[in-house]
Structure formats: structure tokens, C-alpha cells
Amino acid sequence: MTLLTFIGMIVIPLVASPLVYLSGRLGTHETTLHRRSFLVRELALLAILLAWIPFVLSVQTFLTGGTQEFIIETMWLRVDGISLLAAAMILTLGTLVILFSGPYMAGEVGEEKYYAMLLTMIGLMIGLACAGDLFNLWVWFEGMAISSYLLVAFYREQAASLEAGMKYLVQSAIGSVMVLMGIALVLANAGTLDLPGIREAVSGSDVNRLAFLGAGALFVIGFGVKVAIVPLHTWLPDAHSQAPSGISAMLSGVVIEVGLIAMLRALSVLPGFSLSWGILFMAFGALNMLYGNLLALRQTVVKRMLAYSSLSHIGYILLGLGIALYSSMELGAQGAFFHLFNHMLMKGLAFLSVGALIFGLFLQNDLHASLKITDLAGTAQKYPWVALALSIAVLGLGGLPPLAGFMSKWQIFVAGFQTQNIWIIALMVFMALNSVLSLAYYAPLVNMMYRKSPSLQVLAGKQLSLAIVLPLVVMMFAVIILGFAPQLMDWVTIPAAKTLIAMFGK
Amino acid sequence: MNFSPLNIILIGIAGLLGVGFYGLLITRNLIKVVMMLQILIKAVVLALVFAGKISGNLGLGQSTAATVIVADTIVAVVGLALAVQVRRRFGTLDVPQISTLKG
Hints:
The complex is a heterodimer. By secondary structure, chain A is mostly helical. Chain A has a domain at 272-506. In chain A, 77% of the residues lie in helices and 2% in strands. Chain A has 20 helices and 2 strands. Chain A has helices at 6-25, 33-63, 81-105, 111-130, 134-152, 159-190, 195-202, 209-227, 235-242, 245-268, 274-297, 302-327, 330-361, 379-382, 384-398, 404-418, 422-451, 456-459, 466-484, 490-504; strands at 69-72, 75-78. In chain A, helix 1 (6-25) runs antiparallel to helix 2 and helix 2 (33-63) packs antiparallel against helix 3. Chain B is an all-alpha fold. Chain B has a single domain, classed as Helix Hairpins (Orthogonal Bundle). In chain B, 83% of the residues lie in helices and 0% in strands. In chain B, helix 1 (5-26) runs antiparallel to helix 2 (30-55). The termini of chain B are far apart. Classes of the chains: A mainly alpha, B mainly alpha. The A-B interface holds A 74, 135, 139, 142-143, 145-146, 149-150, 153, 156-160, 162-167, 169-170, 173-174, 176-177, 180-181, 183-185, 187-193, 237-238, 241-242, 295, 298-299, 304 and B 17, 20, 24, 30, 33, 37, 40-41, 43-44, 47-48, 50-52, 54-57, 60-61, 63-64, 67-68, 71, 74-75, 78-79, 82-83, 85-86, 89-90, 98-101, 103.
């Protein structure tokens, strides 16, 4: 019996969440407002730092070959390579976002709710990554969705963010209906919901393959809403651009990726369709890349542009996973998971640095406005670190060597060529072209920041505190270091890839 | 097609899904949108209990359905709360009038 340390990763944020909320509600005296806000912030940070301890312990157990499973009745949680990768992503970005939000959200109405919901979302996402049965998967998924609706619509006095929240809620709820119908189909035909049990039940010869194919289609559509597969993506640019910047980073950096992991888990048990899912993933990947890039090209608002670029990055990841499923090749999955992690770092960094600029230029001057690309002019003179961070982030996203984004795209690229399949090679060329195309909207940002002279608005911008700049600098160095030493992430991407191939194995 | 109880339940599920999706397509009122989502979920609850019944695992189907009801109530509450805020900011619940984000 091994110690179930991984439960701590889930429980600590979930227990801390109401405590953070209550601590923000204690006392109503106006003079204590500042102190209360400080308390809320520090408690949230403490909780997420505490959650790192069970994470490190779980990684230790995992790397020494131990397995951790937690089963009560039909509830089934366990740790495998994919859960660890997801937990690493969620905790990394979560910690940095909470640190960043300290000054960013200070004094906002409902600050305690922000941190409480953020911690809830973090705990639920880690739970989702560990879920080992279909129904549990849905419960964590729905919980994560609900906490993210509230965070997207956080600025409730602003019409646009309410609209984005409502749109997100309706589309996501329809997706979750689809997922549940799929679950009902699986339950009716397999008689159980835990993933190994379903796999066993469907391995018999007299299974109704059509029903499972239908369930798979429902899972693709249902989870696809959260993953933002192209025809189902319409909530994403609104939600990502209207949420507070820290939440944009969380949504783009981990929420859609965790949705993808949920989709993979749900699809993995359906029998013998790995090839079809592989082809489907590659097709959607190509569509996502092209569509995301083309729409990002015509955006004028920076956060909206970054949101569309998330679509194209989901495309690269889907492509890697598709190759892995189609040809059972670990390298493709490894590249896809590495890109998942890198996308979290780079997109998180991009959203946070845009958030830092919004904070310096608008929020501190009591303005609520969206940052246009033209507003970036000359920001490098006023905010050298933020401008550098944003440049590194977007160039990494564009896949410029030697940054992290290049390395993971390269891995997917190599995997694609190793399949020696003419269609996949054509797709790889298409991906490379898309990567170049994406520079057409990333490069003007860098140009704007470094080569234009600052506007009056930029000159009137306020100074940024260390707590805002520190997470940016940390992530910036991470992007550069991972670019030079991509093998640093092998300890988690290789087990995750092995898990995926084993999950979809015959 | 005979009208055994199981078939009637299947028709019920399909009917609720149909009503829900049709309603979502035609309605312009946010409160009604949330109501349609609820109708869809009712179809799902029925489907889960039904699936439990025909697979011989009634307990699992029912416990699943009960959890879905709880989770979905929260979605409805959040949705209605957002609708209240929308009414306050926009002065209307009409969906076309609150669609301002484009591109």
C-alpha cells in the first residue's frame, strides 16, 4: 500500500478555496480592506505552494515505478504519465498566475471570489487529469467548466465580459449534454463506466460497434467545445479576450489542454477505432491551424489575436496526437505533449505580459479598455522587461529557433516524417507553412514595441511592481532554457507518451 | 413498433432532445435559453437511468443521474445569475441585441 500523495494535489486547493473566500469576508470595516486583500492573496499563494509538496512526492513515487490508485465504489482516481504532465502544467501556471494576480487584482470588487474560484478550478483540473472512470471525468469536467464561467464573467460591470461568459456557458453546457449522451450510450452497451472495465467489456466479439462509434462522435463534439476544435470554437476568442488577464492565461494555457486530455481519456476505451481517431485528429488539426492563423491575421486587439493563435496551436497538438494514434508512434505523442507544455508556458507568458501592459497603461489609470496592437507602440522604452517577455513569447509561439516552441514543433515534424506516409508528410509541410504564416501576425507586435516611438498614453503609463514582472521573467527564462535543452522535460513527456500509446493500444 | 415501456422512454428521450435543440435554435430570450438547456439535461437524466436499466446496472445509472441533476442545477443558477447581470447592463435579454463581440 503506497501513500496516496496525489490526493493532496487535488484536496489542498479545494479545501483552501472556501477558506480564502471566508478570510476575504471577515470583518466589514472599510479600513481593513487593504489588509484583507493582502490576506486573501497570501493565503491563495500559500495554498498553491503547499500543493507542490504532494506533487513532488507523487512524481517521486511515479518515477520509482510505484502506482497510486484511489477507488471508492465507482469513483476511481489514479496517477499516470498524462496526469503528472497535466498536474505539472496546472501547478506551474497556477502559481505564476496567483503571484501575478496579486497586484493586478488588488482592490477589485470580489477579489476573494477570484482567488477562491481560481483555486477551485486548479483543484478540479488536477482531479480531471487523474480521473479513471468516465462519469468521474464528467463531474470534474463540469466543475472546471462552472468555475471558469464565473471567472470569465468576473468583470460583471462590463457588458462585453458578461456576453462572453454567457456565450461560453451556453456552448459549454450543450457540449456537456453531448458528453453525457455519450456516457449513457457507453453505459447502456458496456454496463460499467470505469475505463479498464469498459475496455474489458468491449473486447468481446458481440459488441455493438455502431453504438461505440456514436459515443465516440458525441465525445469528440462534447469535449471538442472545450478544446475549441474549429467549428465549435466560437466562444473562445470572446472568453479569452474578456476575462481578467490571469484567467486568460489559465484558460488558454491549461483549460483547453485539460479538455483535450479528457477527450483522449474518453476516446481511449472505445474499441479498435484508434486509426479513425488518428485521422480525425489530423484533419481537425489542419483545419484548426489554418483557420486560427487566418483569423488571427486580421485582429486588431492583442488578446483576441492571441486567443485565435491558441486555435492554431491546438491544431499543432492535435496533429502530433493524430500521428501518434495513427501510427502508434511514441515520438508523435511526445512532441504533442511537449508542445502542450510549451504552449502553456508561451501562451501564459504572452497573456500575462499583455496583462502587465494593460495594468500599467489602463487599469492603474482607472481605464477599462482592450489593448490594441497600435497601443503597443514604443512600450519597450517604458517597460523593457515586459516588452522583452512578450517578444520572446510570441516569437516562441511562432516557432523561431532556439526557443521552446520550435523544439516541440520540430519533434512533431520529425515524427511526421518518420511515418513515411505521403499524406502525413504533406500535412507536415502544411504545418511548417502555417508556422511561417503565424509569424506574419507575431512579428508586427515585436516591431511595434521596439521600433515605434512611444505614444503619450505609454509615457503616462504607471510603473509595474516586482510581483508582476517576476513571473514574466521566470517564464521567459523557462521558454529560452527549454529551447536550448528540450530534454529537460523528457522525464514527464516520455511517460505521458507511453501512457497514451498504452491507453489506445489494441 | 410496439409501445413497450422501454420504447416509450426512448421516444421520450428523443422528444426532449428535439424540443431542447429546436428551442435553442429559435429562442431569442436568455432565460428561455437556460430553460432549453435544462430540457436537454432532463433528456440526459432520463437516458442515464434508462441506460442503467437496460445494462442491468441500475444503481450506477441512478447515482449518475442524481449527480447530473445536482451539477446541472449549479449551471442553471450560474446561467440565470449571468442573465440577471445581462439584464442590468444591457437593459434587455434579447440575444441579438447583446451580441456585440465580433471577428
